[in-house]
Amino acid sequence: MSEFSPEKTLDATGLKCPMPVVKTSKEIKSISVGAVLEVLATDPGSMADIMAWTKSTGNELLKSAKDGDVFKFYIRRVK
Amino acid sequence: MGEDNEKCTIVVFSGEMDKVFAAFIIATTAAAMGMETTMFFTFWGLKAVQKGNPTGTGLFGKMLSMINRGGIDRLGPSKFNFGGAGRWMFKKMMKDQNVTSLPELLQMAIDLDVKLLACLMSMDVMEITQDDLIPEVSDVVGAATMLAEAQESKIQFFI
């Protein structure tokens, strides 16, 4: 799963709405523009929520995948 | 992040745990989505941003404070409170589900630069001073200030 070579990984597993999104928004600011953030979550709602968040903030969701119970998101910081 | 002028305004009128919880979930998420978010606490909503010390100058004001002196961790649910047992139960159920607690959500909102405003008129009625509110409440204002914020906001909530 290193095809995007994330600069950082955010472990949001076990967290419920809205924390995966809130933590993602904080964490994305800590990586450089153009870099990729990997987010791990177990909240099934995060699938739709991370997508909505990237759409509304203008960051790019490169990939979302389910690996067992864990959802993995690869997000490129756009600005 | 986000569009420059995306704003979200939330009027928090209710002071019950469940409703305040909804308000903070929306506020933190809106801020996380890049919206400039304002929460306007009025009437019972003031309970959420009170420090929790006794308040009031007159008899009625003091009575109000005796019945409910506020503080984010002291709010009871709108239903099934049963003199505090319900509050304990809901807190436990939320914790068991690993849901973020109200005090943590408040701190999160502060960290995300959510603007916290309090309504002066209802503070006067309930005999609550700015010193009785947590210092993160940046201003004590009137309805016009809230409406000016709401006017610029794409999204408004009244909770």
Helix count from the secondary structure assignment of chain B: 6
Strand neighbour order, sheet with most strands of chain B: 4-3-2-1-5
Across the major sheet of chain A, the strand order is 1-2-4-3
N- to C-terminal separation of chain A? 24 Å
3D shape of chain B: globular
CATH H level of chain B: which superfamily?
A: DsrEFH-like
Number of strands of chain A: 4
Number of helices of chain A: 2
What's the overall average pLDDT of chain A, rounded?
93
The rough form of chain A would be described as globular
Given the helix and strand composition of chain A, which structural class is it?
alpha+beta
Q: What's the CATH architecture of chain B?
A: 3-Layer(aba) Sandwich
Rg of chain B, Cα atoms, Å: 15 Å
- CA gyration radius of chain A, whole angstroms: 11 Å
Biggest beta sheet attributes of chain A: 4 strands, mixed
Proper CATH architecture of chain A: 2-Layer Sandwich
How does this model look, in words?
- The complex is a heterodimer of chains A (79) and B (159).
- Chain A is α+β, with helices and mostly antiparallel strands and 79 residues long.
- Chain A has a single domain, classed as Translation Initiation Factor IF3 (2-Layer Sandwich).
- Chain A has helices spanning 19-28, 46-57; strands at residues 8-12, 36-41, 60-67, 70-76.
- Chain A has a 4-stranded mixed β-sheet, covered by helices on one side.
- In chain A, strand 3 and strand 4 form a beta hairpin.
- The longest helix of chain A has 12 residues, at 46-57.
- The model of chain A has no long low-confidence stretch (mean pLDDT 93).
- Chain B is of the alpha/beta class and 159 residues long.
- In chain B, strand 1, helix 1 and strand 2 form a beta-alpha-beta unit.
- Chain B has helices at residues 17-32, 59-67, 85-96, 102-111, 120-126, 143-151; strands spanning 7-12, 36-41, 115-119, 137-141, 155-158.
- Chain B has a single domain (7-158), classed as DsrEFH-like (Hypothetical Protein Ychn, Chain: A).
- The relative contact order of chain B is 0.24.
- Chain B has a 5-stranded parallel β-sheet with strand order 4-3-2-1-5.
- At the A-B interface, helix 1 and helix 2 of A face helix 1 of B.
